[in-house]
Amino acid sequence: MLTFPTRYLFALQARRKLTCHTITTLSYTDDFTLWPTYFSGPEQRILLTAALRKLDRMDSRAARQQRKAYRLNTTCGSSLQHVFLPDAYYEFEEGHYDGVIHNFREMHLTCWPQDVNGLLPILTRLHSLCPTPKTQTHLLHLASQGYIRPHIDNIDASGSWILGVSLGGERILRMEGPTEDHGNFDIVLPSGSVYLQKNAMRFTFKHSILKGESKDTCQRLSIMIRDVPSPC
Fold first, then answer.
1. pTM for the full model?
2. With 80 as the cut, is the pLDDT of residue 213 above it?
3. Using an 8 Å Cβ cutoff, are 28 and 187 in contact?
4. Residue 138: what are its φ and ψ, rounded to 5°?
5. How far apart are the first and last CA of the chain?
6. Residue 163 in 3-state DSSP?
7. 164, 223 contact by CB (below 8 A)
8. Three-state SS for 16?
9. 220 and 42 in contact (C-beta within 8 Å)?
10. Is CATH 2.60.120.590 correct for 4-227?
11. How many other β-carbons are positioned within 10 Å of the β-carbon of residue 19?
12. For residue 162, pLDDT beyond 70
């Protein structure tokens, strides 16, 4: 089994490759593929704007009013991180019912906003990566210090694959095999990346999103698309 320093070095090496845009697709195993620069900056902004709009509707009226007042009185920058408001303006939950996710907002998405210009072709590109057509979508917004503990997906509650879009702060996805023979590895997930995790990598390897290691860690939003499990 790889030791932590070696795994972390692997993550840093991947970071340098992604920054240079020298790799467009990385296949770590037959069951895990990463597209590190799948979405451009403008495409990321459109996706993030649409996803936050849906999530924001779930917060209380007081929270929505506070966000509106903040936007009216604040000049925001042009970077993708400025699409997010400060953590205090969102109603993040401290812990999930199963103890896996911490400092987050989430929702099951039934439809996207119809009035976000340029969204439809982006979603078409995204869904072109799905192995099967029948899907369900989940939005997960992590606070700056939010994280996901190691877990294995419930095979009875989901299908065989999951497609994940990362928007906002860069994080590390850690994959931990069930035995030393399987090995462990870390994968850097930059904003705009998409990964496909399926079969054994979903139901054999524990996976987690590590907590940010510095005070400058940013918020992160994931769009998770799963295949719908077959009826019994």
1. 0.86
2. no
3. yes
4. -130, 135
5. 37
6. strand
7. yes
8. helix
9. no
10. yes
11. 12
12. yes
Output Rg (C-alpha) for the chain, integer angstroms. 18
Q: Which residue, among 45, 150, 46, 57, has the nearest Cα to 98 in the 3D structure?
A: 150
Give the count of alpha carbons within 13 A of 221, CB side only: 29
148 residue type, one letter: I
Measured at the CA of 35, the angle between CA 225 and CA 9, to 5 degrees, comes to: 115
Taking each helix axis as running N to C, give the angle between helix 119-127 and helix 41-56, from 0 to 180 degrees, rounded to the nearest 10.
100
Which residues are CB-contacts of 144 (< 8 A; sequence separation ≥ 6)?
87, 169, 212, 217, 218, 219
Domain boundaries defined on the chain: 4-227
* Lookup: tokens for 163: 């497609």
For the stretch 99-121, pLDDT in tens is 899 999 999 999 999 999 999 99
Handedness of CA 95, 83, 135, 182 (dihedral sign): negative
What are 34-63's pLDDT values in tens digits? 999 999 999 999 999 999 999 999 999 999
Distance CA 45, CA 192 (A): 9
Is residue 95 within a helix (H) or strand (E), and if so which, with residue range? strand 93-95
H or E element: which one contains 119? Answer: helix 119-127
**Partner residues linked to 230 by β-bridges:** none
